[in-house]
Design brief:
By secondary structure, the chain is mainly alpha-helical. It is built from four helices and no strands. The longest helix has 32 residues.
């Protein structure tokens, strides 16, 4: 949610004619990150949670790309988007750590067959 606040703060300075373009798209992508995390957490299984965390990671990539576009197109100065980039990096690290932990949990919770799988002689 901190990333959303940073993105909204940075995009206030965007040109008015971008309100329904890049500004809206950037804000939607940012809002999608905590929304996907929350929805995944509410699901019944770790596998579902991981699927939603993957979508959140995709939204983070969108935010990163769109922030770069705002700078490249001259809509925002580098200095005004530094806090959003910093929060983006921190959020990405946290999300990666959560995905790693849940992947380990899922592997540990997955029942293994009591019968060994025969190896092919080839």
């Amino acid at each position: 949610m901190e990333l959303v606040a940073e993105v909204y703060s940075a995009t206030r300075a965007m040109p008015a004619d971008e309100r329904f373009g890049l500004t809206a798209q950037l804000r939607r992508a940012a809002v999608s990150v905590p929304s996907c995390i929350a929805e995944g957490n509410a699901r019944q299984s770790t596998a579902d949670y991981l699927r939603f965390l993957s979508m959140a990671a995709g939204s983070l990539a969108e935010v990163e790309t769109q922030l770069a576009l705002t700078e490249k197109l001259g809509f925002l100065q580098s200095s005004s988007i530094v806090p959003a980039y910093d929060r983006l990096r921190a959020t990405t690290k946290l999300l990666q750590a959560l995905r790693k932990a849940l992947t380990k949990k899922l592997a540990a919770d997955t029942p293994r067959s009591p019968f060994p799988v025969p190896r092919s002689p080839l």
